[in-house]
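PT: before anyone asks, these are the final sequences, not the draft ones from last week. 581 residues across everything. Please model them as a single complex and drop the result in this thread when it's through.
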Amino acid sequence: MITLNHYLALASILFCIGIYGVLTRRNAISVLMSIELMFNAANINFIAFSKFITPVFLTGQVFAVFVITIAAAEATVALAIVILIYRHHKEINVDKINFLKW
Amino acid sequence: MSWLTPDINFKIISPELIILIVALLVLILEPLLKGRSKNILPHISWIGVALALVSVITLWNREELGFNQMFILDNFSCFFKIIFLSGTLLVILSSISYLKEEKIFHGEYFSLILFATFGMMLMASSLNLIVIFLGLEIMSLCLYILAGFRRYDLKSNESSMKYFLIGAFASGFLLYGIAMLYGATNSTNLKEILIFTQGFENPLFLFIGLGLILVGLGFKIASFPFHMWVPDVYEGAPTPITAFISSGPKAAGFSALLRILLFAFGSLHIDWSFVLWILAVLTMSFGNVIALSQTNIKRLLAYSSIAHAGYVLVALVAGGDSGISSAMFYLLAYTFMNIGAFIIIIFLGEKKVNLDDYSGLVTKYPILGITLALFMFSLAGFPPTSGFMAKFYVFSSAIKSGYTGLAIIGVLNSFVSVYYYLRVVVIMFMRAPVDEVQKVPIPFFLGLALLFSVWGTLHLGILPQSFLTLAQNSIFSPF
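LR: through. Structure below.
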């Protein structure tokens, strides 16, 4: 029997993988993918809470649909920015794009 | 399951609708207009913003819920909408000549600014975490693009990418926090969360959720451990966008923070105010101390904006009626004085951002020199400017709530900040001008924006009573 706790554990593991990825990966696309993992961890939480705690109301599931939409929009903007940077630098390594420093 | 009839009330969202329609209109007209006729786009935008401002004022003193409790119209949201819209108005007016100079005069610029304003307005007038999150993302996505609007410029690209990566990272935290809060309280509605937190038992989820939301919004308002993006983004972004980012989105983040902390979590004030106390002290001190060593004026104002976020956090720690109203008054005053200072940097252009470029400014442009000095005095908190009144109300509300130590740290911090604000004034007034470049006349609309922000800075400083009463009438009922 899969309980709420299983889903929450899965979500928190995914969230931590996401944070780890953002902090350690140096490729802009990988960082973006790690951020998507964090969003999806939150989505799993929303749907699990919606199913187990408030099965009558669909608040959590509706929220998850909104988050998926926003994640798609965010990916679009991010890829546009990455392409722009690649055109100028021929490089998408986050560490090497570093002109602004005091 | 029963079907709910849609609860639609166009009247209460009329300012948002005006902004949205104008933004779409500008977006549609952009490809249709050719050549010089594109010049009307900024004018359409600022007239739309002015209309929205009028419609906000007509909605004053009404309290209505709409859209199945997703949207709330109260004086609190109206006051914040006045802050956002006057900031947007100033930025649009002052960026017309800048965009032509930088050869990036595109209609999308204005529609993106308007969409971002729309997102902020949604954030300020929502009682539901779903809509707060949606508003935040609408705002942020537009700002990521705007930060990289000087496409050919490497610094602007980098600022856009840094802003995006850190902003999206913060949104991830905020979202996970909202999910935890939803699990703990079974609702995303702040009123229901409020009823829940007044109960005796508060589960661990609730505090995890609140902590993650604090992290997420802390990035947006640039409080201490989450401030790393601020100087880089402010330096690289086009100057009007820097002015925009430092006023509106910061105020929007604070509006969400005020609603969540002081409304939904008002009964747990003792639990979170300690964390915020530490954050406020660190934010103020860090911003002011690092600003001392800056030589680029955009970076200097970036660190100063971190410090100012710390002052507003003091008002949040104080809480209660006076805390909320002084935070709102502070954000309004900050919008005028900060955008005012940026307008002069916008006029001088993207190449003159070092402090040395400002030497002898007052002999070349007497009006600009004197107004920049006024804004610097206001940011430092000298009477009779708005900065003094705003700081005075914030610190007196902190003392009223028994946080005397915090108020003392705040006052000491503003002494530190006097050094770097006055350094700009000294460089402008006491040094000889470096180059003999031809004098350029001040563009009309930029001058208008400058006049408007000078009026705001002086009016809020000399006759603060009217706006202070407005702020006091617009608080929501806290605990």
